[in-house]
Amino acid sequence: MSYYxxxxxxxxxxxxxxxxxxxxxxxxxxxxxxxxxxxxxxxxHLLYTVTRDNKILFQPSRLGLIFKKQEGFADHLTIDGQSxxxxxxxxxxxxxxxxxxxxxxxxxxxxxxxxxxxDANMSVLFRxxxxxxxxxxxxxxxxxxxxxxxxxxxxxxxxxxxxESWWIKAYQWNRYEYLYEQSLLSEIDTVHTPVTMKVNPNxxxxxxxxxLTDYAxxxxxQTGGNTLKCNLVPWADGTKVKGKFxxxxxxxxxxxxxxxGGLISSYLILxxxxxxxxxxxxxxxxxxxxxxxxxxxxxxxTWYEGDIHGATTDNSKEYINYAAEFGFDGVLIEGWNKGWNxxxxxxxxxxxxxxxxxxxxxxxxxxxxxxxxxxxIGHHETSAAIGNYxxxxxxxxxxxxxxxxxxxxxxxxxxxxxxxxxxxxxGDHEWHHGQYMVNHYRDIVKKAAEYKxxxxxHEPIKATGIRRTYPNMMTREGARGQEYNAWSGDGGNPPDHxxxxxFTRLLGGPMDFTPGIIDLTFDHANRIDNRVNTTxxxxxxxxxxxxxxLQMAADLPENYKDEPxxxxxxxxxxxxxxxxxxxxxxxxxxxxxxxDRNSDDWYIAGITDENERDLxxxxxxxxxxxxxxxxxxxxxxxxxxxxxxxxxxxKNMMLKRxxxxxxxxxxxxxxxxxxxxxxx
Length: 680
Ligand code: NOJ
Ligand code: CA
Fold this sequence. Notes:
With 680 residues, the chain is an alpha+beta fold. The chain folds into three domains: 25-271, Beta-galactosidase, Chain A, domain 5; 276-478, TIM Barrel (Alpha-Beta Barrel), CATH 3.20.20.70; 500-507 and 531-680, TIM Barrel (Alpha-Beta Barrel), CATH 3.20.20.70. Strands 6, 7, 8, 9, 12, 13, 14, 15, 19 and 20 form a ten-stranded antiparallel beta sheet that branches. A seven-stranded parallel beta sheet has the order 26-25-24-23-22-21-27. Helix 5 (313-326) runs parallel beside helix 6 (362-372). The longest helix has 21 residues, at 3-23. Residues 1-23 have low confidence and may be disordered. Residues 177, 458-459, 477 line the site of calcium ion (CA).
């Protein structure tokens, strides 16, 4: 091409871009055209407005950043330029609830400047998908890596109505481990994300964030009426984010769907994360495990040494035998290392991560595991003493790696604000969810990858889709799990808890809820104070409903012996080809259908709250040329979570694609189904 022609094209491009910025309002639509985001400047403020099907969903909502030193990222703003980019790609998850994920969006980038400061150049990026939108800030700085201290992020979400909302309060001592509350949006407190809303029976949305990297985590505060504002978890000194330019914020994500179930099968949060950075992922494997764990929560074992110490060499070998008999992959062993005492949650500085208690022989146990083809899952409870952990973590990962341990469960039990930073000044206490800990959790994920170690993090930072970038970040807690049923003073998780989690906490990513309690009323532990508030069938259904690539059979292994329901827990896969959600209403019920990634089997599971109900599903996903056998684990006719939780029917039936299946769920109940094609 001649120099002259190139010059003409160049001039034309510049002309188009300039025309755009002067003449047209920056706006961008979703690929299907239903969702639109438009940016405006009003009184020097940058605002975005969202419409769906031509109706206003978000009123003009403010955008901007406030730094301590640098002015001009919030006021006196002008839009200098804009560009549109279309993107459509399908990528493969190494493991997950869906093998192939389509990432299809239109992206608008607007360049912003301010009269207050000639150096204040900021871009705001909006990605609009069919299933929601996301935005983030990019500030390049002037190239010399100037330091910044951010005092506030002004992002607003001015919802145009007052929807029913599900949320947990932020800034509480127990981190994310609370029951969800339900109220009108106008009545919510300062809350964690995901916060999920039902705008009307045909419109649901959930606000969260994606790619939370080197930034404070976002909570949401209500600033009057139905307007929500980003509230960043501060450092001890009250500032929000510290760093050097360039700055790229996490994505603020809003998943939007016609059905509540559509939120579950939306992969917008993963799509907004960077692709896998680990070149070799052959060592990363989903799996099922049992553990020396539930006994400590029931009080029949201790983490620390003594008569009922759980993690002894003999017990560990017995658990390895059980895991081999059950056909599982691993055994979690908690309470193996020096430091555990009856006050372990008060001071984590006592923990050694390399020295075993004298009744625990790590060499002998891991060697025995090798013989039986069972992996030991290691355990690091830090009790939130970050310095003590960081000092030892290399040696600790090395020790485990040398023993063939490929997965570690970590823990950060501690008051929400009780993180003592490494090298901090006296009195410095950081939040579990501020930038300091966001960075700690990420450093550990990266370090684990160096040692080829997979992680299951309890008391974590919330899931924001990082597993796409670092697929060794397998699963995490970050909500009230099964453990609350063992000891919680409020009687444990009520029947509707697990009908809220899939629409809230699990939108962020997998959860290590630890299902599968068979002794629901703790008869074998001689306990009468607490129990599990579900039927037996519902415990089975949770394996399909609450996605995790590492799934625990949480009960004492001896409780699984001679238990017919256990067959489902043995069969259920942990890695899926695809996921469908035919029914769901937040806090009431959900039915999830998943196809096994390694066979032609399908699994269907439904759960309900305290109300019984029938839910019918069509089997359009089955192959029309095949006959299937379904093994159905359903609540018995007379089952009820409170008075008759063990009543369970197991039956086989033939199924074809044309059939319909009605799931009858008892109060507090569930149903779990395995569908296998007939061999032709
Ligand atoms: C809390 C975790 O959620 C639980 O699973 C673990 O057993 C204890 N911390 C001890 O680390
Ligand atoms: Ca916990």
